Amino acid sequence: MKTRTVKVDTLARVEGEGALLVKIKDNAVVDVKLKIYEPPRFFEAFLRGREAAEAPDITARICGICPIAYQMSSVHAIENAFGVEIEAPIRVLRRLIYCGEWVESHALHVYMLHAPDFLGYPDAIQMAKDHGDIVKRGLGLKKTGNEIVTFLGGREIHPINVRLGGFYKVPAKGDLISLTESLKLAREAALETVRWTATLPFPEFEQDYEFVALSHPDEYPFNEGRLISNKGLDIAVSDYDGHFAEEHVPYSNALHSVLKERGPYFTGPLARYNLNFEKLSPLAKEAARDAGISSVCNNPFKGIVIRSIEILYACDEALRLIETYEEPEKPAATIEPRSSVGHACTEAPRGILYHRYKLDDQGIILDAKIVPPTSQNQKIIENDLRQFVPSSIDLPQEELTQKCEQIVRNYDPCISCATHFLKVEIEKE
Amino acid sequence: MSLIIGVGNEYRRDDGAGFAAARRLRAENPDVPVVLQSGDGVSLMEAWRDADSVIVVDAVHSAGKPGSVHRFDAAARPIPAKFFPSSTHAFGLAEAVEMARALGRLPERLIVYGIEGKTFEAGTGLSPEVEEGVSQVVEQVLREIC
């Protein structure tokens, strides 16, 4: 009997603190644990007793990479509870700021965190010594994303301009135009990114996943839509709790999410792309086709190409939104609290982010529930490791460990968000 | 152009030391621009891109005496990694310095001050020892930029 262990005590190139253990016995994987040991953060408890208006600023603090996602899910959920209708220009600005966050977050992951895995570098700094121009392109893209978020959010990290009903201050149409030049250059860089990532070496690895994403009749999803899957799920966001469950596992500080009927599911760029391909802009669809990616992609390693296609889409969509924007009469809709429960799901860069709030008639938060995308993908990550490792069992330890880490990074896990962090451990008997 | 960058998170107690120092430096010497950053590497590189003399102040966690001050000449050599392991950013200050060096985008002069923190738990307010560390950094930086 031969046992082998792949063990990574601190996973690198992920946001937050986590570890990975893979145990192999007689060429079979006997145990896989994605351990999230960053301490739980109790944000749901912090929110109890606070005013509804504070939720976007408090929840934005959960993540330095995707604060917009937290702000958007919280404002939509509370507006849903209070029956608030927002004006079309506010909707445009919310989509626009989300485009900025996708560009920022995806550019960081594609270039700094994930690309070194494919090109055989320990990190982006070593990669930059040989591929300086590629890395500079990634930094340029991220900068454009930062510009959008800073412009609309007031500052690039933990933006402060988002409020219930809209914004504290909205831009004049003429001011928004200032983003156009930078976005057009970013769109070209994004197109180059799709072409470049498509040439990276991908392991043959496809799985029969259940993909879950938002779906909107007219547009690629950001802020609203129904929750659908490729295996029959089609529900209003308000029915989320009826279909999804969160389970505690002893080795992780993040709860594992499952579909009550069928178990683990996949959320994030691949899910969005597979369920909403037709809603992409013509340019993004064409780039996907030219890169040899069909309308459905079941290989999680190709997530780097799908993220690049989404960067391209977000630049393209941002330019369209700027063109259609007309300054609203007032920056935010009036908020009238009422005793109720509100739900919302929005598409964070890493997948669906669900918020639910129970509020009283004074607008005080009685109860809050937040389900971040990384906790939803944990089981799928573990399943991928179980499926992938047997075919690579003969690899030297160092290489096998690197492949396991790459699988985790396929999902761009944001462990800070999910704790409610990363290290890999492979045990072979 | 000179620039002072305060790095940290004032909602994680002593991780707010960089912000506290930067704010005091802004008040004491309004001639040098001061920016506050969360520690995201790409934003740091962007912030110092057009500057030729940069001072960064951040909290550090290296098991040293709380409030003690470390000074690193980052333009000359890498910052010892053990001083900035507490960042949950996948691409933080230490990485930004090395990335900038690899791409030829390092400011001519880049000094990093690290103030040893005592507690990084959720909440606001600095430990008294760290307050003293902040005062010491402010004095040292003022001498350095005058």
Structural class of chain A: alpha+beta
Q: What is the string of helix and strand elements of chain B?
A: EHEHEEHEH
Biggest protein-protein contact in the assembly: A-B, 33 and 21 residues
Structural class of chain B: alpha/beta
In the CATH classification, which architecture of chain A applies? Orthogonal Bundle
Percent of sequence in beta strands of chain B = 15-25%
Q: Could you say what the CATH topology of chain B is called?
A: Rossmann fold
CATH superfamily of chain B: HybD-like
Radius of gyration of chain A: 21 Å
Count of runs of 4 or more consecutive helical residues of chain B: 4
Sheet with the most strands, sense and barrel status of chain B: 5 strands, mixed
Task: Quote the average pLDDT of chain A.
Answer: 91
Task: Give the termini separation of chain B.
Answer: 14 Å
- The fraction of residues assigned to DSSP E strands of chain A is 15-25%
Structure overview:
- The complex is a heterodimer of chains A (429) and B (146).
- Chain A is of the alpha+beta class and 429 residues long.
- Chain A has a single domain, classed as Cytochrome-c3 Hydrogenase, chain B, CATH 1.10.645.10.
- Chain A has 15 helices and 14 strands.
- In chain A, the strands form 5 sheets. In chain A, strands 1, 2, 3 and 14 form a 4-stranded mixed beta sheet that branches. A 3-stranded antiparallel beta sheet of chain A has the order 6-7-8, covered by helices on one side.
- In chain A, α4 (88-119) runs antiparallel to α12.
- The termini of chain A are close together.
- Residues 418-426 of chain A have low confidence and may be disordered.
- With 146 residues, chain B is an alpha/beta fold.
- Helices cover 32% and strands 21% of the residues of chain B.
- Chain B is built from 4 helices and 5 strands.
- Chain B has helices at residues 17-28, 41-47, 93-102, 128-145, and strands spanning 2-7, 34-37, 53-60, 69-73, 109-116.
- A 5-stranded mixed beta sheet of chain B has the order 2-1-3-5-4, sandwiched between helices.
- In chain B, α1 (17-28) links the parallel β1 and β2.
- In chain B, α1 (17-28) crosses α4 and α2 (41-47) crosses α3.
- Chain B is globular and about 40 Å long.
- The interface between A and B is medium-sized, with 33 and 21 residues.
